[in-house]
Structures are given as C-alpha cells and as structure tokens.
Amino acid sequence: MAAAKILAAVIDKKTPLDGMLDAVHGNPAYKALSDADRALVRAILNTTLRHLPRIEKSLSLMLDKPLPEGARALQHVLTTAAAQILYLDVPSHAAVDLAVEQANRDPRNRRFAKLVNALLRRMVRERDAILAASHTILPVPGWFHARLVKAYGEAEARRIAEAQLTPAPIDLTVKAEPALWAERLNARLLPTGSLRLAAFEGSVAALPGFSEGVWWVQDAAASLPARLFGPLAGKRIADLCAAPGGKTAQLAALGAEVIAIEQSANRAERLKENLARLSLSAEVLNIDLFAYKPDELLDGVLLDAPCSSTGTTRRHPDVLWTKSMKDIEKLAELQARMLRHALTLVKPGGLVVFSNCSLDPLEGEDLVAALLRDNPGVERVAVRREDWPGLEEAISPAGDFRTTPAMIAPGEGYAGGMDGFFACRLRRR
Ligand SMILES: C[S@@+](CC[C@H](N)C(=O)[O-])C[C@H]1O[C@@H](n2cnc3c(N)ncnc32)[C@H](O)[C@@H]1O
C-alpha cells in the first residue's frame, strides 16, 4: 500500500524519494511500518523505479487497451506488483493478492480488481518470457537517453543505462593506509584509492574502524575531486558546498586548513557530527557561499556544486523521474555563477576544483568551456592519464575527470561501476 502511494508521489508530483523514506520526517504510511516492512517497501520502490520503462511496457503489452486516465492510482498498484513478480525475490502470490486487495479497497478501482488479478497471474506464469523480451527496452526515460546519446554516443549510452540497473556497492575512503584497511575489511582497493566492500548487508557502523573514525562511506568517483589538489599540508582551502562532508574530510585528512561552507543549517550540523566522528577539524560556516569573502585570498577552493545528480541513479533511481531538462538548465546556470564566485576567492596561481555528480555536459564540459572562453585569466590544469593508472578511461581528452556508472569492471566477489562525476581543475593565472 505504502509503496504504490509513494511511487505516485515520485512519478506524478516529482517528490524525491529520500525525504519520503526519512525515518523521522518521512511519509506517514511508511513511518507506521515495522523495520522489516520498511526495508521491503524501499526495495520495491527502488526496483520499480530502476526498471520502470520495462515494467510499464510489459504491462501495456498485456492489456488489450490502455487503462483510463482516471486510473493512475491503479497503474502504480500494478507497477509495484509487477516489480515484485519480475525482479524481487518475494512470493509472487502475495504480491498479486495485495494488489487485488488494494484495487478492491479504492472505490474508483474496484471494477478493475478482476483485471488486476488475471493480468498479474499471467505475469507470474509468463515471467521468464516477459523478462527475456524486455531486454530490448531501454531502462531509462526517453529524454535522459537522448541526452546520454548526444554526450556519449549510442553504444556508451546503452552501457550507462544498463549499468544504472545494478545497485551501487559500498565504497569507503580511508584516512591513511588503504592497503592495510583493504585487507582488514576484505575490501578491494580501487584505482581511485577507495576501498570497495564485497557484497554486504547490515550496518557499516559495525565494521572495524568505524567507531575509531578511520574511514567514511564515499563513492569511488566522489573521492576524486579532493584528490586533484596535490599536496595540501598547510594550505588554506575552502570547501564551498560542504555537507555532508565527504570531501571536507578528505581535505582535512590530507593536512589542509579547511573552511567548510554550507548553506543548510541541518546539513551543516550533520557535517560537524561527521567530522567529530572522524576526529578531523574544519571551520564550519553555515552561510550562503555567495556571502563568503575570506580576509586573505585562499590557496584553493573546492566547489562540489548542487546538480541534477543524474550520475547517482544506481543509488537514487527516482532522480530520472523527478528531474527534467529544465532542472538541468537551471542548475547549470547556478553552477556557472558559483564557479565564477569561487574563482574570485583564490590567489593568483590558486586552484579551483569544480565537480558535480551529473552526467550531463551542460553541467560539466559545456559550462567549463564557456567559462574558459570568457575568462582569459583562468586556465585548465589538465588531469594527466599517467598519474591515474587504471582510470585512463575516466579522463577526457581535455583533461577532466568524466566518470560514468559503466566504468570500473567488476572483480571476483566485487561489483563494478561508480557514480557519474565531472571534475575539472582550474587555475587562476
Ligand atoms: C552535492 S552536495 C555537496 C556534497 C559534499 N561536497 C560532500 O562531498 O559530502 C551540495 C551541497 O551544497 C549545499 N549548497 C547549495 N547551495 C549552496 C549555497 N548557495 N551556499 C552554500 N552551500 C550550498 C547544499 O545544501 C548541499 O549540502
């Protein structure tokens, strides 16, 4: 019940999933569930959203005629039930019975209860054939696929779209001694310097090193921007969009004197808590970055800007259904303004690293190209392939990091992939 309602809010009202699944401020129907039922609802929603185009197409092929416009709620009941039948390891008959019960409970949908029953039972019987046939259907919305094709070409777009079907593994960044901690945690040491856990269920807080603040959870790709500054001991660096603090922690662990700026009060608090657990220090300023003017120009600035997050769909599959091209355009404009401000904060010769977790060039390559065109006082310091063995494919010809979920091959017992990220290193002349 909760799953279909929450799905409706994502699809019809563009409400992000994270907020609705928050244990304190989340959707009331979700909060009323037991821990086990919450986990099941989360799995159903993430699975439904990951496979939505394939589920919808499979359902439409089984219907003689489309459901009437007024039956949106029924559509969500059907898609969440179909996700369980096709992709989740739960008893199919329970999913069918629940969907029929939901249809019966809603006076607008009662007349469709028999149809729901027949259609879903047929789906159970024909599951293997439906799954085999659905492989040809693109697993992402059309607008997003078109953007991927434009940026990466047909074949790579397909690989990225398929890669986002696999849930992200857990990656960790360690303060020091990555090889030693890789062994202790039975993790794979990635070419980014991150550790990747083998298939893992449970709480990371129970793993060795957590309570001592030795490491933090951070996707491999997300760890790259902070690594672009080179030696940081004694340098003053501002992290302009800092919370929850993965990159602030990296900068501080590398010896920088960090000023961490975060506009949201709640998120600034979370950043402070995270730094405290890691015994790392930074000056945390809960202000708008546009209001920040240091007394003296800085050695470097990290701008990990708010973005469309289209690189994180393995973790947040709702993004593709809540964001649109309009959002990408608006965010790209904001990022360009933020980047121009960031460049005023560093001394001549100072570095600005600009990054975000979008796959769209409007928020990355195009934005930087326009900035360089208009600002002769700024130059790109290209990332060199020879400095990043194993990550050559993630470095663009211009010398930026451009990672995608289709990069990093799986290893024995370890998943592949990483978030889609853009990171560019700029220098004020
Ligand atoms: C992509 S997240 C940053 C993630 C962070 N760098 C990390 O590695 O953990 C962007 C952050 O920027 C913050 N933010 C957005 N607009 C801002 C502004 N004008 N000034 C300061 N922070 C802002 C958001 O609240 C959000 O926490």
UniProtKB/TrEMBL annotation:
**The protein, known as:** MFS transporter
Q: Which GO-annotated molecular functions does the record name? A: RNA binding; RNA methyltransferase activity
Does the entry feature the keyword RNA-binding, yes or no? yes
For binding S-adenosyl-L-methionine, which residues are annotated in this chain's numbering? Answer: C241, A242, A243, P244, G245, G246, K247, E262, D288, D304
Q: Please list the residues that make up the active site.
A: C357 (nucleophile)
GO BP annotations of the record are: regulation of DNA-templated transcription; RNA methylation
Origin organism lineage: Bacteria, Pseudomonadati, Pseudomonadota, Alphaproteobacteria, Hyphomicrobiales
Q: Where does the record place the SAM-dependent MTase RsmB/NOP-type domain?
A: 132-429
Entry keywords, A to Z:
Coiled coil, Methyltransferase, RNA-binding, S-adenosyl-L-methionine, Transferase
Q: Which domain of life is it from?
A: Bacteria
- Tagged with keyword Glycoprotein: no
Alphabetized InterPro entries for the sequence: MeTrfase_RsmB-F_NOP2_cat, MeTrfase_RsmB-F_NOP2_dom, NusB-like_sf, NusB_RsmB_TIM44, RCMT, SAM-dependent_MTases_sf
Coiled coil residues, start to end: 261-288
Into which family does the record put it?
Answer: Belongs to the class I-like SAM-binding methyltransferase superfamily. RsmB/NOP family.
